[in-house]
Please model this.
Amino acid sequence: YLKSHDESYYCCDVYVEEPYSGKLTELDNVLLTPHVSTFTFSSRRQAEQLAIENCLDVLSGKSCSYIVKSN
Model:
């Protein structure tokens, strides 16, 4: 689709394997970036704050708010 529709664009920053080296790299209407969505000051600060709050909750006997379940 992207090859036949120059007016269309595709942007991506998450891949199965990095660095990405697939066919999308050959197209001018594609923007590929590394996964950097958490590199902003505010998102990093929020993640750190949540981690601290979770640690304090667990240390005080409460359950953790964000639990990743394994398979």
User: Anything to note?
Assistant: Residues 41-59 form the longest helix (19 residues). The radius of gyration is 19 Å. Helices lie at 41-59.
